């Protein structure tokens, strides 16, 4: 016989805190996500740098509002087919309704969505310190190594990628309609999250039944998902460009150039191909996880000590745990890190996420080397 769980709302707000909590993520992953939410929406004494928090909020709000705007446009056109007063109810939601809902209920932003915004924000911050291209495509001499490439496909893909990075780095992302150029699975989460927010609000009006509103939102969301082209997004472009360069150019020289210009999306794409590590996994190492694991990856890439130090210095802009004293320790560690030891240390990196999730479910802990702070 089990005890009843009495809650004022009938138990709907109760949450599982065990290792089999919904979402299928290990303890370290969920702990990182909760701290990210704390940074974004509440006070946190051990938070990310203020610039990173601000940037993540800007990009998250911009993407949420952009997807919501497209969804509301379709809803207004189709709502009258459900109920004559429903278009008026849609209009009363107002601009930015979904973002206000997420601010009130941060848990609506799932781990993958928040992690992607962290990755996207880190790219934007670092790109501001690298070479720039203006909106007309004019470019400084520091970027001519790819944009003037005689292979037209390389030049065109590089231009598309760098323009996107610079667009991400522009100010006021939260006040204008941005391109929700995110991986397909992230776009799907954005669309369905916003659909749920809007459906909940419209159902509470009582103008139409919840089932009819669900059907309407499913139609609108489904159309948006079918029309989405992930291949035009910067993560796909970076992987495409890295493959072309590896096939036709010296990838080692291109990697060094990308690092010098702080083009971290392209840099991580090179490493992703060379070491068969997912791109999002590498960005997790860059932005939040144990920096010694990142050093192991760089050693496997045969990066020079000066290049590794440059990476660590750049990461001070997006991480709050890399104080000067820690950088000195890490630089010394890299100097003594052998290729053999790097192979052993990187084992926790190349393990697929499904392994880490299932191991955490079984044992209740993350893998060694994973920073759950």
Provide a descriptive summary of the structure in words:
The chain is mostly helical. Helix content is 65%, strand content 0%. It is built from 19 helices and no strands. α2 packs across α5, α7 packs antiparallel against α10 and α11 runs antiparallel to α12. The longest helix has 29 residues. The N terminus and C terminus are likely disordered.
Topology:
Layout: H1 27-41, H2 50-78, H3 86-93, H4 97-104, H5 111-128, H6 144-147, H7 152-169, H8 184-204, H9 210-227, H10 234-248, H11 251-260, H12 264-275, H13 279-287, H14 291-300, H15 305-315, H16 324-336, H17 339-345, H18 347-350, H19 353-363
Helix pairs in contact: 2-3, 2-5, 2-8, 2-9, 5-7, 5-13, 7-10, 8-9, 10-12, 11-12, 14-17, 15-16
Keyword list:
19 helices; mainly alpha; 0% strand; 373 residues; disordered C terminus
State the separation between the terminal residues, measured CA to CA: 38 Å
Per DSSP E runs of 2 or more residues, the count of β-strands stands at 0
* Average residue-wise pLDDT: 80
**Helical amount:** 55-70%
Rg over CA atoms: 23 Å
**Beta-strand percent range:** under 5%
Secondary-structure content class: mainly alpha
- Most strands sheet: none
What is the molecular shape? Answer: elongated
Task: Provide the low-confidence segments as ranges.
Answer: 1-24, 133-141, 369-373
What is the H/E string? HHHHHHHHHHHHHHHHHHH
Discrete helix count: 19
